[in-house]
Amino acid sequence: MISRALSLILVFTFPVLAQGSKEDYQRADDLGKRFSGKVFRDRVDPKWVEGTGQFWYRVRTGPKSEKYVLIDPATGARKEADKLDQLLPKKNKPSTNGSTVKVLPAPRTHKSTGDSTTISFLNKTKQPVQFLWLGNLNSPTPYGKAEPGKQIDQHTYAGHVWIARGPNNKTLGVFEATANPGLAVIDGSWKPSKEKKVQPKRRKKSETPPDGKWRAGISNYNLTLTNLETKKTIPLSKSGTKDNPFTGQIYWSPDRSKIVAIQRKTPNKRKVHIVESSPKDQAQPKLKTITYVKPGDTIDHPRPHLFDLGTKKEIPLNNELFKNPWSLSDFNWDSDSSQFTFLYNQRGHQVLRVVAINAKSGKASSLIAETPETFVCYSRKKYYHRLEKTKEIIWMSERDGWNHLYLFDSKTGSPKNQITKGKWVVHKVDRIDHEKRQIWFQLGGIYPNQDPYHVHFARINFDGTNLVKLTAGDGTHNIDYSPDGKFLIDTYSRVDLPPVTELRRTEDGSLVTVLEKADHSALKKAGWKSPERFVAKGRDGKTDIYGIIRRPSNFDPKKKYPVIEQIYAGPHGAHVPKRFSSRGHAIAELGFIVVQIDGMGTSLRSKAFHDVCWQNIGDAGFPDRVLWIKAAGKDRPWMDLSRVGIYGGSAGGQNAMRALIAHHDFYKVAVADCGCHDNAMDKIWWNEQWMGYPLGEHYEASSNTAQAHRMEGKLLLIVGELDTNVDPASTMQVVNALVKADKDFDLLVIPGAGHGAAGTKYGRRRQKDYFVRHLLGVEPRH
Q1: Which of 92, 335, 367, 729 would suit a FRET pair with 761, their CA atoms being 20 to 30 Å apart?
Q2: CA dihedral of 395, 396, 398, 402, whole degrees rounded to 10
Q3: CA quadruple 365, 369, 374, 375: dihedral, nearest 10
Q4: In Å, how far are 18, 229, 542, 611, 623 from 537, measured between CA atoms?
Q5: How far is CA 500 from CA 27, 76, 488, 494, in A?
Q6: Cis peptide bond prior to 285, omega within 30° of 0
Q7: Looking at the whole model, is its pTM more than 0.85?
Q8: What is the CB neighbour count within 10 angstroms for residue 155?
Q9: What's the angle, vertex CA 776, arms to CA 775 and CA 779, rounded to 5?
Q10: How far apart are CA 581 and CA 177, in angstroms?
């Protein structure tokens, strides 16, 4: 029998020809250049022509060619021309430079992070243009440069903001990425201006009611009432202190007879101290201190108080139904002033309740409540919408095992009907039409023969009738509505299908015409390999697990390739790409097969699928992932399952190291970047959402630090010393545990780097080197 040590030596000296070489690294670094700008007819950004009902768009048809297209939605009639003037009369000609992303009047940071997308920079100037990501307004991050006449494709996220700069750092444009891949044209026409500041609407908690007789305020931490005629001030509360003050959250009843005010006990918040070893402006290190609340810490404790303005006294409330809040929100008085309601999210996230307070007695009752045995996914699956005219509530719940919408009576809390139903899930409510009593929403899994993660759009009546599927194509969708709401422009794609854009009717979702089918023939000629979609059964032998397989551009099916899993098992979402992208995969290009998988414990499937993560982050879906990779390897002999690696960042960093703790019989090499290796060390909201409160043995069971003595294999830990997302001490504590357990491992601390240090140029190179050295068995770049 061959010993295990000898077998490992044999595995890692498997002869591989020309993998991990200097040429492979160069080819991986050049993927962006090779594949950029080689997909055509992939973008439709409609410009509606006022007074005609028609729209036009510009579409790239080749490297140096484009067409302008005019569409009549009523008939689907199409006209094409080389110039816009040939399609539109002069009075309808818009002033545009052809950009299809949002052009901003001034630099600003992003307000949201949406789905993965692409922004293409087309340089129509005579000078090189650098494009930078505005993650930090004062210090934008440079990503690339477009030479005159060239177009560069840049991966980004919808909502993220980019700035284009010419010589002498002159700003030539500011652009916001859109959900669909878009074009940013730099032609020298951009001019800066100040963005209009939209004043936020004041919530209905005015200190002075409409009759103008009284004013409520805060004095010496307590609620007071001032007569505006006599100027006399009356104290309404006495319990307010410096550490437990009444706040500016004051809610008058519509009849102005009652006030609800919020008192909030505020503890001292935990501080995390970070040392910047190598600041740019001085020789000595700097100490940085941030507020960083962790699981188990004492948090703010808000509590409502009800006051009768007739008696000028407080009406006592029994707080049994809301005694341990994570949050109180959505405060609202009924129009008849009979009751006051709010949304109570209990700490530990196992209770989400609409509480009603009787205005006369102060009696509290539960109108609607979610009390699962596991958790309420309040961060992604909460929707609470009041219909004041009809005294109803639209509510989101997983009570039947799938994420759906329900209709309740807002006075009694009794259910009226389930609005959506089936073995599919509601992702998001886009719009409520109160007059027609309709809901427009996003969903997944409604087409049995499609990937359940594909985003589709639909409409349904409040009573659950007339479900209209607005999209149909086998892919994940993004839509734009016509100004009159009668039509929608639907663009869908898959990782193995370039974008298809259709014009559909909103009345019944029927197809008017196909506007464009993207042409990616030039991309394939350049060596781009389409990711392969693959489905296998999970740990229960019944549930489908979805993932993708990536190959190098010079893939040879006669060769054997090590397999590397790119992992991120965060329960807040699903993470395998679903949209088409022309980007290659730099690690795969070095001579690896790279896979991505959504195992159990991630979101956007059934409640049971998601519940696997409950108090069990350490599971990370690994039983499903291992089975999936083994199933993929059965009829793909070029996948060498004796050499399997894994890498990830943040939660993925925790996952990557966990592979060598709990599944080192399968995974041999791991790179863990900025991992939250102990959930008790990480940010409170993310970890208590999945791990619960109070802390217990389940935190230790999922902790890489506590389980470090079980680690076997080759491990590289990477951390940025200035990480403010995940406390860098989380990595250093797992290092300490590994040292105490006498384990061999590698550590890379990158001075000046923040969260995602493996994404820096140096970090990327070291990560690649680690896999080349320990999976390919060769010295990198030789």
Answers
A1: 729
A2: 120
A3: -100
A4: 35, 74, 6, 18, 11
A5: 30, 16, 14, 10
A6: no
A7: yes
A8: 15
A9: 110
A10: 15
* Parallel/antiparallel/unpaired status of strands 561-566 and 271-276: unpaired
CB atoms within 10 A of CB 403: 27
Residue whose token pair is 């108090």? 615
Q: Within this chain, do residues 629 and 758 fall inside the same structural domain, yes or no?
A: yes
Q: State the Cα–Cα distance between residues 390 and 396, nearest whole angstrom.
A: 18
Tell me the residue length of the chain. Answer: 782
Written as six digits, the tokens of 584 are: 């290659």
The candidate with the shortest Cα–Cα distance to 292, out of 326, 325, 269, is 269
What averages of pLDDT result for each successive group of 10 residues across the chain (782 residues)?
Answer: 40 53 94 94 93 94 95 97 86 66 88 78 91 83 86 84 91 88 87 57 51 88 94 95 96 96 97 97 97 98 97 97 98 97 99 98 98 97 97 98 99 98 98 97 98 99 99 98 95 98 98 98 96 99 99 97 99 98 95 99 99 99 99 98 99 99 99 98 98 98 99 99 97 99 99 96 97 97 88
Say which DSSP state 758 is in: G
The domain tally of the chain equals 2
What are the DSSP E strand ranges found in 37-104? 47-48, 55-62, 65-72, 77-81, 102-103
Q: What sign has the CA pseudo-torsion 474, 475, 479, 482? A: negative
- Pair 733, 587 in one domain: yes
- Torsions phi, psi for 622 (to 5 deg): -60, -40
Q: Are 163 and 173 in contact (CB under 8 A)?
A: yes
Q: Given the structure tokens 């290190």, which residue do they identify?
A: 285
The CA distance from 94 to 159, in Å, is 24
DSSP helix/strand/coil, 211: coil
DSSP string, 176-201: E--SS-EEEEESS-----PPPPPPPP
The Cβ of residue 529 has, within 10 Å, a number of other Cβ atoms equal to 17
Cβ–Cβ < 8 Å for 346, 362: no
Q: What CATH number is attached to the domain comprising 666? A: 3.40.50.1820
Q: CB within 8 A of 621, min separation 6: which ones?
A: 569, 597, 598, 599, 600, 601, 602, 612
Quote the CA–CA distance of 49 and 180 in Å, as a whole number: 21
Radius of gyration of the chain (CA): 29
Whether 29 and 170 map to the same domain: the answer is no
Burial of 686 (0-12, 13-18, 19+ CB in 10 A): buried
Q: Residue 633 is part of which domain span?
A: 4-36+523-569+579-600+616-682+696-776
> What residue type is 678 in one-letter code?
D
How far is residue 489's CA from residue 69's CA, in Å, rounded to a whole number?
Answer: 14
Tokens of 209: 């009611």
φ and ψ of 12, to 5 deg: -85, 0
Question: Alpha-carbon distance 469 to 485, whole Å?
Answer: 15
Distance CA 566, CA 476 (A): 21
365 membership: H or E segment, kind and range: strand 364-370
Assess whether 9 and 131 both reside in one domain: no
Are 161 and 20 members of one domain?
no
Task: Please identify, among 136, 166, 186, the residue that sits at the C-terminal boundary of a domain.
Answer: 186
Bridging pattern class, strands 116-123 and 182-186 = parallel
Q: How far apart are CA 377 and CA 366, in angstroms?
A: 19
Sheet holding 182-186, edge to edge: 151-157, 116-123, 182-186
User: Is 506 domain-assigned?
Assistant: no
Say how far apart CA 687 and CA 680 lie, in whole Å. Answer: 8
Neighbours of 556 (CB within 10 A): 11
Task: Supply φ then ψ for residue 770, to 5 degrees.
Answer: -65, -40
Q: Over the range 57-84, which residues count as b (16 or more CB within 10 Å of their CB) and which as e? A: bbbbeeeeeebbbbbbbeeeeeeeeeeb
Residues with Cβ within 8 Å of 677's Cβ and at least 6 positions away in sequence, in order, are 653, 654, 657, 703, 704, 705, 730, 731, 733, 734
